[in-house]
Amino acid sequence: MKIDFKGNxxxxxxxxYAVFFYVRYGVSYRDLKEIMAERGVEIDHATLNRWVVKFxxxxxxxxxxxxxxxxVSWRMDETYIKVRGEWTYLYRAVDREGETLDFMLSKRRDTxxxxxxxxxxxxxxxxxxxxxxxxxxxxxxxLQSLNVILKFTGAGQIISIFQSKYLNNIVEQDHRxxxxxxxxxxxxxxxxxxxxxxxxxETAHMIRKGQLAQTGIPAFKQFAALAA
Length: 228
Prior knowledge:
The protein has two domains: 12-68 and 190-225, no CATH class; 73-174, 2-Layer Sandwich (Nucleotidyltransferase, domain 5), CATH 3.30.420.10. It is an alpha/beta fold. The longest helix is centred in the first third of the chain and has 22 residues, at 45-66. 51% of the residues lie in helices and 16% in strands. It has helices at 12-25, 29-38, 45-66, 111-125, 137-152, 169-182, 191-208, 219-225; strands spanning 73-83, 86-95, 100-106, 130-133, 160-163. The chain is built from eight helices and five strands, in the order H-H-H-E-E-E-H-E-H-E-H-H-H. The protein is globular and about 55 Å long. It has a five-stranded mixed β-sheet, sandwiched between helices. This is IS6-family transposase. It holds the Pfam family DDE_Tnp_IS240. Residues 65-227 form the Integrase catalytic domain. GO terms for molecular function: DNA binding.
């Protein structure tokens, strides 16, 4: 999907540079404003925020559509993200090689949220052979609910479920990059902006892991190509 940049007062290249720098390097909007000023672009915090919130989800959607195939053995876990002073839950899944599968920010950590996440991940990546989760009863119930849907819709495949803390070390380690980037951002003020920004961070992380292109292509060029 080609992203429309018409109506903006700045060139597409400037917008993409600002968005990429913010979601890849973990800076505050004040820092980003100074970085852009050093490059001759005077721009306020609100505009930078608007760019990140508007364009990050669109670029992330293109990244999901264009990423390399992933393995059929998954690891799923959730981590905590603070929004307006309250904890929310970032559901994340990677394959056995640590490649990003999908992610979803949720206000709740319950069976319904887990089911929505698994349905989303399967819709994006196909039905896996197996999924490893932690000892969470909500995650287990959500995955079992998905298996019921698969059984009665004629999908012909049921997902094997493994509950193991050890198997989930891969996804728990992968959380660290996301947390490192969000820490300097000084917190999120609204749920929708948090979800949008996290989509951009996850996309930058996928590029970092080589999920979108052959090695040797600069990360920013890969990010910018997702807007074409």
